[in-house]
Amino acid sequence: MLFKYHSIAAFSTPLSAFLAEAIGRSDIPLPDIIIPVPLHSRRLRQRGFNQSSLLAAELSASLAPTLEIPMLHLLIRTKNTAPQVRMPSIEDRYSNIRNAFSINENLGVDLHNKTVWLIDDVTTTGATLSACATVLKAAGVKSVFGITIASALTQKPSSAQ
Hints:
The protein is an alpha/beta fold. The protein has one domain (2-151): Rossmann fold. It is built from 6 helices and 5 strands; from the N terminus they run ααβααβαββαβ. It has helices at 2-5, 12-24, 41-47, 51-62, 90-97, 127-138; strands at residues 33-36, 75-77, 101-103, 115-123, 143-151.
């Protein structure tokens, strides 16, 4: 929480090292691209940094030093949603984040058949990761893996998409 809400960006280094170590012990395939979950421009100005972007950049640089795995801002947060932490229910979280993301077409990146790591700090219901993954899959991404520092994942409601 200090990392995200108290603007202590320096926590990105030890937290990304923790993530890299955990990933190294898993059988998750290396990605073609690492993508941070974006903040809306208003929230980015308020916070001063995107914690997911800091984690993604550090992972990109440290995971496979002999390979270049780019970290790209391929997603744009087009809707200034209320913070997910304020949503009282799982259904509200999915509704709040629905249609909040789009692809950054200005980068001209071919996403077809790519494996992507989607980086976020924490997931509770998976609503944000799910909304981002939906946009990425619609753009042709083959596989999306959600990578987070912490998870309190609860079951997705049957009515959410």
